[in-house]
Design goal:
Low-confidence stretches: none
Strand content: 15-25%
Helix content: 25-40%
Shape: globular
Distance between the termini: 62 Å
Mean pLDDT: 94
Number of helices: 12
Number of strands: 12
Largest sheet: 7 strands, mixed
Length: about 350
């Protein structure tokens, strides 16, 4: 019998590992998890009831077309059904987009640092990542990104607000950038945190997509809607792109429980807006407190804050853990801290103040 291993694709060598937010230790000193940008609230009204009902039938396959959810999204956003596609969270749809556009020899561009799944899903496809550094203010450098476009560029991610920095690009600069992008290059506006934006100068990507066939908008139910564990996201794009997404989707990938929960969440918008409003108020309180302690905090329009700590990053994360909260460190760069429940935020602020005094 041969002892050689099955041949695997060379592109899989050296793929970075996605690092999920560290959970709070059961029975340990850590009481709160502020490492994954999760919504601290329980499911919205009607969600548990819809999921419980759907669970009675999970011996059956889900509706592969997500018909009920697609109808709700079409009405909610005023877009044709043919312009919609669903997937296992917005990251699942992002991977489908790369599969549909890019392969060996092609380039996928994004800012860096940005969402850490981008380099992973790009390398899986065999395409080459083009990472354009953020500005000193931790914002997308759209001029540099436009200059980096080549005839091999197939897809560009613009994460707005950006994960993990929380910073945004505003309407004038984004439209100027889109005007410079060739019409055959797909621009993906990743708006996973759209509901938390309060800056009126940040455009809704759906408005931009309507007039631009090469713009695709990603949204998710994982963050503001609080369905992170059910994995459902969607894209709004013109028909050729949306059709390609439906072709590359994993059959039956979005469970019926996820579909029903998403529908119920969309129908509880008033409650959603109240919860998001509370988190936005907490965000302001956290940012103001950090700045009063002497920290430099970029303006954030997401449900998290970013502290650029460089070589002190891991020490800060460990200090937070000793106080009772887990944050998300990016070694050598900084930490991302979710805005959670008031008690968790208070513990984090105490940890940050204590760390600052020790410097």
């Amino acid at each position: 019998m041969s002892e050689t291993s099955p041949k695997l694709r060379a592109e899989l060598e050296g793929i970075p590992t996605y690092k999920p937010g560290k959970p709070a230790a059961a029975g340990g000193p850590v009481a709160y998890k502020l490492s994954s940008n999760e919504n601290p609230y329980p499911p919205l009204p009607g969600v548990m009831e819809s999921v419980t009902t759907a669970a009675c039938d999970f011996n059956r396959y889900p509706d592969m077309a997500c018909s009920g959810l697609m109808d709700e999204l079409s009405e909610r956003f005023g877009v044709p059904l043919s312009h919609l596609a669903t997937g296992t969270g917005s990251v699942g749809v992002a991977q489908q987009l790369i599969q549909a556009t890019s392969g060996p020899g092609d380039e996928v561009m994004y800012a860096w640092r940005s969402f850490e799944a981008y380099p992973i899903i790009t390398q899986i496809s065999g395409a080459r990542s083009v990472q354009v550094p953020l500005t000193p203010g931790d914002v997308h450098d759209l001029d540099a990104m436009a200059e980096a476009i080549t005839d091999r560029t197939r897809l560009i991610f613009v994460c707005n607000p950006n994960n993990p920095t929380g910073t945004v690009v505003r309407r004038a600069e984004l439209e100027r950038f889109l005007d410079r992008v060739p019409s055959d290059v797909l621009v993906v506006l990743d708006e996973a945190y759209r509901e938390f934006i309060r800056d009126p100068e940040v455009p809704d990507g759906v408005e931009l997509y309507r007039e631009r066939p090469n713009v695709c908008v990603l949204r998710t139910f994982s963050k503001a809607y609080g369905l992170a564990g059910l994995r459902v996201g969607f894209a709004i794009a013109h028909e050729p792109v949306a059709a390609a997404l439906r072709k590359t989707a994993v059959p039956f990938g979005v469970s019926q429980l996820a579909q029903e929960a998403a529908i119920a969440s969309l129908r509880a918008e008033d409650e959603l807006l109240g919860r998001v409003g509370s988190l936005v108020c907490e965000r302001k309180r956290v940012v103001d407190a950090l700045r009063s302690q002497g920290w430099t905090v970029p303006e954030t329009q997401a449900n998290f804050v970013w502290l650029r700590l460089g070589e002190r990053t891991l020490a800060f994360a460990q200090a937070c853990e000793r106080h009772g909260v887990v944050v998300r460190p990016f070694p050598g760069e900084g930490v991302r801290v979710t805005v959670g429940e008031t008690e968790a935020n208070d513990i984090f602020l105490k940890a940050a103040e204590a760390f600052r005094k020790e410097l």
